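Side project, low priority. Logging it here so it doesn't get lost.
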Amino acid sequence: AFEAIKSVRSEINVGWSLALIDLQAIDGGEERTIAARRAAQLDWLDVSAADDFIGVQTYSRERIGADGMLPRPDGPVTQTGWEIYPQALEHSIRLAAHHAKVPIVVTENGMATDDDAARIAYTTAALQGLERCIDDGIDVRGYTHWTLLDNFEWTAGFGPKFGLIAVDRETFERTPKPSLAWLGDYARASRSH
C-alpha cells in the first residue's frame, strides 16, 4: 500500500497505526516478554521503518512472569477491565521510536470510565510521559484522545464511556464533559512542545 500511494502522490505522508500493549517482564519473565514483544510488536515496528510515520495506540500494560501472563495488580480498573496505567503511553512511544525510527503520531490513548476526574488524571499522566519523550528528542507529531464521543465499542456496545463528550443514545444529545475543556486548555498551554 505504501508503494502504491507513493507512486501516485509521493508528497503524501504514509504510515499505519499499531495497537501496542506495554509488555513488562516480571520475576523471570524476560525471555517470554522478549518473545511476545517480537511476535506482537517488534516485527510490525520493524516493517514501519520505511514509512513516513508510525501511529501508536496504547492504553495499559500486561505483565509477563516466568510462567506466562500475570493477573493484573489489585486496584482500580477501567470499564473494559484494564489496569489504569497511563505510563503505557510513554513506554509504547519509546518502543516505537527505538525500533521504527520514524516520527510518531499517537492515534489513540485514553480510558473507559464514567469518572471524568479519573479520565483527566489518567490523561494528565499519559501526556506528561509524552512530553518527556519529546524532551528527550523523540519526534512526536500529534496526539489523538480516545475518543471525542462516547461510542459503540465492539462487543461491549455503548456501555464503556471513552469520550470527551457524552451522547444520550435516546435523544442523541451531546454533552461536553469537563475533560473536553481540560484537554483544550492543556493543549493550548503545551504549545511549546
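Brief comment: Helices lie at 2-8, 30-47, 88-100, 116-135, 178-189.
Revisit when time allows.
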